Amino acid sequence: MEAVPQHHTNGISAVTASYKQCDMGLLNDVTRNLEPGSRLNTHSPGSLPSSSSAGSLSRACFSDITHDILNPDRGDVKPGLTENQNGDSCVSSLMLYVQLHGEVVRRLNPDERPLQIQNDFLFKLGFKDPWRVQEEGLDTEIGSLLRFYAGKPQTIESSERVQLSGTYNVRKGKLQLPVNRWTRRQVILCGTCLIVSSVKESQIGKMHILPLIGGKVEEVKKHNHCLAFSSAGPQSQTYYVSFDSFTEHLRWHRHAAKMVSQRIHSVDLSCCSLEHLPPNLFYSHDLTHLNLKHNFLPADQGLQQLQRFSRLRSLNLSNNHLGQFPLAICDISTLSEVNLSCNYLASVPCSVGAMTNLQTFLLDGNSLSDLPSELGSLQRLSYLGLSFNQFNHVPQVLEQLDSMEKLCMAGNRLETLTLQNFRLLRVKHIDLRLNKISVMVPDEPDLLRHVTQLDVRDNQLTELDASVFPRLEVLHCERNHITTLKVKGSLLKGIYASCNELRQLDISPVPSNLSYMDISRNFMELLPDWLCEAKKLEVLDAISLTANVLRKISAGHNQLQKLPERVERPLLEVLDIQHNQLVELPCNLFLKSDSLRCVNASANKLEHLPPSSLSEESHSILQELYLTNNWLTDKCVPMLTGHTHLRVLHMAYNHLQTFPASKMAKLEELEEVDLSGNMLKTIPTTIMNCRKMHTLNAHSNAIEVFPEVMQLMEMKCVDLSCNELSEITLPENLPPKLQELDLTGNPRLNLDHKTLDNIRCFRIDPPPTFSSNEASGGPAVWSHGYTEASGVKNKLCVAALSVNSFCGSREALYGVFDGDRNVEVPYLLQCTMNDVLAEELHKTKSEEEYMTNTFLVMQRKLGTAGQKLGGSAALCHIRHDPTDPGGCFTLTAANVGKCQAILCRDGKPLTLSLLHNIGLEDEYQRIRQHRAIVTEDNKVNGVSDSTRIMGYSFLFPSVIPSPYVQTVTLTPQDEFFILGSRGLWDAVSPTEAVEAVRSVPDGLAAAKKLCTLAQGYGCTNSLSAVVVQLSVSEDCCSCCCSEPPQPPPSPGLGQFPPSSSAMKDRPSDGSLVVPPLSCSEISSEISTSEMSSEVGSTASSDEPPQSSLLPSSRSCCTLHPACLAGSFQRQLSSATFSSALSDNGLDSEDEEPIAGVFSNGSRVEVEADIHCLRAELSLSSSPQTSGPTSSNQDCTLVSLPPPPPDGGNLAGKKRVNGSVARQEKSHNLIEVAADAPSKKSGGYFTAPAQPDPDDQFIIPPELEEEVKEIMKQHQRLLEEENYLFIISERW
């Protein structure tokens, strides 16, 4: 590995104003500017110029410091280190350091080898082939994941540490003493110190450091523009600095005054790559809180210096390399809080009993199996964390802790919960999550009165009798197998029992203090009767009750057929009863529930709605009403008029035919309305009364007249797709906040879209054009439709990918990406992942291998954006293997995170994805091996709820991007498959999704239906759905057998396919061009959550691709036309991108807009079509024999010019998302008219149907003679070659 010098110095960096040493910004900036191929970086001590402040500041940490402060026990000098004249510890022999995911830097041990570390890293990431591991190690992009340094890199930018600097007259000591004189010195105000040094020898001379913490800065009246800086303590020193101007005097005085007055009791040195305590930490002995987590501190004698902090109360040493319990902290009697989590501790020493003031003791994530008896002397201990250790029982010593209030033993090995062990404990809060508890041995209730909170989530309980805890207030028992649950209701405030098998819920007495109850996703058929009785008790004893009464009921996803007639409660605010079997709601639900503000009764069988009032005057304050996917008719609309405060109304996919204007006029507070999937012909004109409305969804109806919603100034989103609109009338001034207008699926609509250029995302159907597929009648195997929807914050954090003709006409690629709360990761995945997959197809033919490698390579291509951000991803690749003569189409699906793919086979869902979370035993054991902590919200280290996801590289090795891959052979029984983001599958089950899509024959309308259902079920996140309709016939397998197999790729790096720009700039003579070094180079910068995002080359090669063998005559069905063998290795076709960012990531030199594709601001829809131009140039029916000839003679590319402005046969390619791109204006469009898709009935479009074998190309008239001449020349060449071949054979 070649060393590249860097501008850094060795030594310990100076402390900033807040003692924070974890800024990696400079390191990222330096490493990003490395020369290609550099992997090991050398930091030379003398690389900085003499005037640079960084070099002097590095020495300022330990210069002019007394010998005992620097290191009281410096008898032994570590090997490889020498001591200079100032007492500095300098590296005499260059040390190697490793940095993972751009964070902390660790020094390698003498027995560690960089290449071995790199190989282990890549194997843990998911690579399996040793040759591929070596290839990945040579890629410079891996630096964002793993980087080695020769010498410790500088981690703090000097400009951030140095606040002020300059050369001034300085005098030390009292002004009255004639011994001290004024001298010109270099003065630096850095961190919390004043540094004074020689001007000429600022880097190697002696430096004087004056700590300003607790000191003072004063004006000197006898001298102009002079300040006196004094340190604190009995041995304080004073420096007088005379400034040149009054302005500098004021500036220095203001900054120094802040340092003197700032709080010094708390120091944060987390994530600073510390291997020992820095000497400048001991400038102040008055520290009370010290944070040293995420470093590399060992449990050696260096920690004994912590005893010098006589007032230290809080110490955090979590995630270090202690290995054993640090005995030094046991002598710090003032400690009240100690965190030693994730330090590979195997035991706790007996001396721990000396910390008598300890109140919080965290030992999570270690290897403890027992505790010493001396722990019982910690009588003030109130919180003990023992989670994720190896306890198989509750330690008996805990019975001696009288002050214990909270005990956390999650993630241990408890199998039986013996409540007798808690009899003598005084614990109020017990956390037993993620154990293997299947049996609970009860005890006398009177002996467990102290327990108020019990958490037994994610265990193996089949029944739970929590009534033995008479004073229980909060019960968590989610994700078990509980069928019967008994709870004492005297003081019960919250019960969380979702995702079980509950059929019976017994709570007695009536829980009058209950404020939250979640029994969703169970097998409940009836709500408990005590819900009615609870109101009686409240009325009878209203004076003694507090405000903690039942406010929310979550009973969705059960089998409820009827609600109690008196389920209403005066203080009930939220009622969630979706996904049940309800036919009607209680008739007085809205009459007496004056405080009810949100009702979700979607996915039931409701035919009627209860009245909102019995008179014209209504007291309803209902604000949100979700009634999607019911059986409601027009008779229900008048029942809504009493809810005058209604803001959100979802009535999609019901049986509405009209919505009377008089009824809409009374709902003036409406802001969001969804009436999609009904039979409406018009939207009432009185919608203009809703001045606050910002969202109108009414797709999949029969609307003929465009509503006048464009006059509402708050309007943001209008979706009127899949209707019968013919024309629209728009005002001159559109709503200023309008961002989305979707008019696709209206085949009769004729609109001049140029008037709508200021809309962020505008979708419209393309004009009807002639397609060769329509004439040929060739069948289409797949067609797709997709849609996206923003979340509540109007931020689109999802992206979809659709490539109808990927790497040829017999392949397709679809994907969905979800960034949860970030936009960067899904956008980068969308723009790059298809190119990465195309490259991987040239390296291996194994479905699991090329899919897995695609995800792993994409991890490094996320660059620095993938270090702190992450996202879910799902890919589906349809292909036909040409090497298998009897093979059919196969579908390969891969996913990480919560994006999933579902295949409908024989009307039933077939899951193609796997959710990687802690619910899987293998995944749970894997993250436990890497000392990961699962927080109470079921997230790994509190960040991700998935154990396999793109990005989040700082969570490696607990969280990795290795996907789940599954390959199925497509059969005629396969109807379609669905890709959805996490928000879709959180709200809609696979079974329901399949049933919903089966009733909608069109892909676009089906995708919209899925997203609408999810929103109607309460989803507030961004949504994305892709529906791919399949039409696989029996002859799809046999018709492909005539094409001869192609040779496998070479075992090396292989031939990378040319980028789209290379295809666009291809010379007209048919010669191949050298592809550029990068196919997509994307950089995204954000700040605060702002970080740099880098995407490197995705399709590059140093040599042009080689031509294949001569084409031979072969027969092929209309589904698979013959292709010229010597053309491109990879073609991207029908690639539809939709993103939340303006840059589409594709090369383009054409600034003109694309017809049907609009980009305004932050959202873009682009289609990149690069079709395969291979064809049989020999039209002779006689058999021919191929011979070895040059590629220039074998393959002649017919270069087609752009179509005329009037359209013609090559006017544009219809898209399933309702847009069209003219060939002369496309960003990356090299298209053969024969591959254009055929139009489908209803105004939607399918995937490219293939032409007849006799009609391979449609040649423009002006090129007919030229093409004929080229074909004649080629025919003559073939005949000459055949003649020469026959002569040679005879000879």
In short:
The protein is of the alpha/beta class. The chain has 22 helices and 61 strands. The strands form eleven sheets. It has a 22-stranded parallel sheet, with no helix packed on it.
What do you see in this structure?
The strands form eleven sheets. The chain has a 22-stranded parallel β-sheet, with no helix packed on it. Helix 4 crosses helix 5, helix 12 (824-841) packs across helix 13 (847-861) and helix 17 (990-998) packs across helix 18 (1003-1016). Helix content is 15%, strand content 21%. The chain is globular, with a radius of gyration of 36 Å. The chain has 1291 residues and is of the alpha/beta class. The two termini are 57 Å apart.
Gross geometry: globular
Computed CA radius of gyration, to the nearest angstrom: 36 Å
Oligomer: single chain
Q: Please, what is the average pLDDT?
A: 74
Helix content: 10-25%
Provide the fold topology.
Elements: E1 3-6, H1 25-32, E2 40-43, H2 53-60, H3 67-70, E3 81-83, E4 89-91, E5 96-100, E6 105-107, H4 114-125, H5 130-137, E7 146-150, H6 158-161, E8 162-172, E9 183-190, E10 193-197, E11 207-211, E12 216-219, E13 226-230, E14 238-242, H7 246-261, E15 266-268, E16 289-291, E17 314-316, E18 337-339, E19 360-362, E20 383-385, E21 406-408, E22 416-418, E23 429-431, E24 439-441, E25 453-455, E26 463-466, E27 474-476, E28 484-488, E29 494-496, E30 504-508, E31 516-518, H8 530-540, E32 552-554, E33 574-576, H9 589-592, E34 598-600, E35 624-626, E36 648-650, H10 661-665, E37 672-674, E38 695-697, E39 717-719, E40 740-742, E41 761-763, H11 772-776, E42 782-789, E43 798-806, E44 812-818, H12 824-841, H13 847-861, H14 865-868, E45 870-880, E46 889-896, E47 900-905, E48 908-911, H15 921-929, E49 950-951, E50 964-969, E51 974-980, H16 982-987, H17 990-998, H18 1003-1016, E52 1023-1030, H19 1035-1038, H20 1060-1064, E53 1082-1085, E54 1092-1095, E55 1132-1139, E56 1164-1170, H21 1191-1194, E57 1212-1214, E58 1220-1222, E59 1229-1230, ...
Parallel strand pairs: 1-2, 2-7, 15-16, 16-17, 17-18, 18-19, 19-20, 20-21, 21-23, 22-24, 23-25, 25-27, 26-28, 27-29, 28-30, 29-31, 31-32, 32-33, 33-34, 34-35, 35-36, 36-37, 37-38, 38-39, 39-40, 40-41, 56-59
Antiparallel strand pairs: 3-4, 5-6, 5-7, 8-9, 8-14, 9-10, 10-11, 12-13, 13-14, 42-52, 43-44, 43-55, 44-45, 45-46, 45-49, 46-50, 47-48, 47-51, 51-52, 53-54, 55-56, 57-58, 60-61
